[in-house]
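On to my pick:
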Amino acid sequence: MPVTGPPLSEPFDIRQILQKGLRERPDDTAMSSLRASWTWRELDDASERLAASYLRMGLKSGDRIASLMPNRCELVIHYLACFKSGLVATPLNYRYMAPEIDHALRVSGACVLLAHDERAADLADTELVSGLRYGTISYDDNGGKGDKSYGNFVSAEKDRVVAPPVEGDAPIIIFFTSGSTGKPKGVTHTYDTLGWILANCAMSYGLSDEDIMMPGSSMSHVGGFWNCNTALAVGAKVAIARSFDAHEILPALRTMQPTVLIMLPSALFALIRDNDAVLGDFASVRLCISGGDKISAALEREYIQKTGHVVGEVYGMSEIGLSNENLLNDMGTMGSVGRTNAGYSLELRDDAGNEVPVGQPGRLWCKFPGITVGYWDNPEATAETIIDGWLDTGDVMIRDENDYFWFQGRKKQIIVHDASNICPQEVEESLLAHSAVEEAGVIGVQDLVHGENVRAYVVLCDGEPYPTQQQLIDFSKKSVGYKAPEEIIFLEEMPMNATGKVDRVTLKAMAAAGH
């Protein structure tokens, strides 16, 4: 039987996302960074002007408007303008290079691009940007250059150019997958599905209008996007970090004093290990959440030592929102992604589609009113992934007798060694527990005898004695036994994918090329 979470009454209204703040405290700060701040009234006014400017260009409801932007408050205003105008926001990862930009533009059919001017050289190398129907909208930290600039658009006259009403099933945003299992696909959400996701996030985090949310990850990715907009929907203040290293995050923590901090494991690990970070920097944080990849025991241990609290772990995807959370200060469930969230039904199935027993690994299938309506212009991939209203996440988990779910890895990344399944994240965690290891990526390499052998790629920390390959292998064996890597390759820099996770696709390619 599926495991079902608590009831979730209704979705948030994305078209009215600022209304609680506007109604109750319009002149209080709604959003700030270390550079600037906006009240609720100013945020509403700026997004109204920008929406009107977009429509004045000739854009119509349903048109896709791409963005290639770093974390800025102005990106949030852009999203709000899309909500108000009926345009389909299409955020591109800021790490994208010319081929990836072209792929996203080709898939989405975007007709205009909002882009930071510092990416001009990369945009010049693309095939499609110069041919966009409405061109490129310039942005820099002074507003941008030329007539078609963000600064001009957001300061234009606030006339009554309005979009026609849109239905709840109209598309509102396209997120691109990380590409960990193939070419990135365009995950499409509507006003309604996005509203369900935000409503669930608010309930899962226990957010109120007294909170200050710092989404310490890119707001061009689904996590940063929905955390920011969930906070606005409940009337909470948003604190924007322009980058995610300690030089930005630590001053932001000290100045803006967020109550909720959400970061990717790799960025949080680096923050905790920064010598300048002290207990007092986290004094305001009631809830620190990490997701997007498995949290290592080393990260949990060092965060507890630094702050006295555990890191809350969550599980979610662009396609489904946030299906699981484990935010309790409970050492007994550390390492679990938690129970089923409100509104969700989850089931673990084998390759034949049968439900697996408690304690056995299976692929996670999800049902929720907020799951994606499909992949943009890709009905084949949609039909493969969504069957009878259930979405196949492709992730392998184990459910225990208390209905806690334990992430095991992606089905396509599981290493099969002598007929035994090995989760790469588990081996990576064993290596990250070593004080000299800063980053670790683990893959399987083909072997005629064993099927696949375990290979680890490791980046070492500065200032620590360098261990040998055999010393690290022996260290790993102490915690994971036969799953420990047969070989370790040391790297100067770990390849990361577009969402800041270890890029195992690139590691596989390196292995195939003999590296």
In short: The chain has 15 helices and 27 strands.
